[in-house]
Structures are given as C-alpha cells and as structure tokens.
Predict the structure.
Amino acid sequence: MNLLAHTALSGNSDKILVGNFIADFIKGNQYKHYEPEIIEGILLHRKIDQFTDQHPMTRRSTARLQTDYGKYAPVLVDIFYDHFLAIHFKELTRRELQTHSEATYRILENHTDILPVSVQSFLPNMIAQNWLFRYYDLGGILKALEGINKRAKFANHLDQAIHNLEHNFEDFQDDFLSFFPDIQHFSEEIIQKHQLTAK
C-alpha cells in the first residue's frame, strides 16, 4: 500500500486525508455511515488507485516485476513509488517529509474514534517507528516488504523485491517521476471540483 502517496494527495483537508488513508480498510459501500468529507477521501483514494493502475508508467514498472512476483507486482510498485516520493518529497510537494509525516500522525490521532479497528491497531507502531518518513531509506522499504510478505497469501519472498529495486533503481525512478505529476494534477482536480460543488 502506498500510504505516503495517499496522504500527500489529500489537499489541505484533514478529513479527506483521513478518508484517503483508511480507504483500503473500508470494503464496498461500508463508507456510507461516515460524514461527507471522509467519504470524499475514501472515494478519492479509489479514483487514485484506478488512475494509477491504468497509467502507462506504472504498467511499465509492474511489467518489470510480473515474472518474479505475479499478481503482487502492483503492490510492490506502490511501495517502490512511496520510496521515490519520499526521496523527492520536497521538490514534488513543497513540504518537508518529516513535517508532513508528523502532521499526518496528529491528524490520524485526532480522528482515532472513527478509524477502522485494524488501523487503530497498527497506528501506534506506525507513529513510533515513523513509517512515512522511513520510506526515505531502503531499510524502511525492506521492512515494508517484509510486512507485506508476512500478510500475503500464497506468496513467498516478496521481501526479495528489494533487489529488483536496487538493480533497476533508475528505471523505476524515471517511471515514478513521469507518473507522479499526472496523479497530482488528477487528484487536485477532483478535490477542487468537490470544493466548488460544496460552495
């Protein structure tokens, strides 16, 4: 899951960020009991995922991993892209990565009562270990890959994808840098349309 990217693509709304962050833990139409701005964040997340899956750059990145990791290749690309976002965070968002990470943790803590139970359970570790900032270094990426490997069904050695990242670093980075401005523009347009509608 590309946790860092989704938090960075939430505009200036705390509640859209919360919805965007928890969306993977909300199945089907189970979001309907949330307040409107949280719902906007959940739906934004789903649109971001659809856009990402169809983008030629992410498809090219995925193809590099398909032979070794099959259906898990897109999941690995998400994690790789969070690494590149962390590396280039300031130039792409005009914010400091650590400042953004701390602000995100505060927002999530302020909305603990509406977070899904599964998110509540890992949030303390996420904050203590500073997951968002740790996407900056390969050690943090390896830890994320190890976590995915433990949770994945019928898959082994997903953590070995760290070697794919290292061996094809420039290619993956070039794909990401071509892709991310497009997803930024796409997300900004969706959020802006919501704000105009809300007025």
Q: What stands out?
A: Residues 3-198 form one domain.
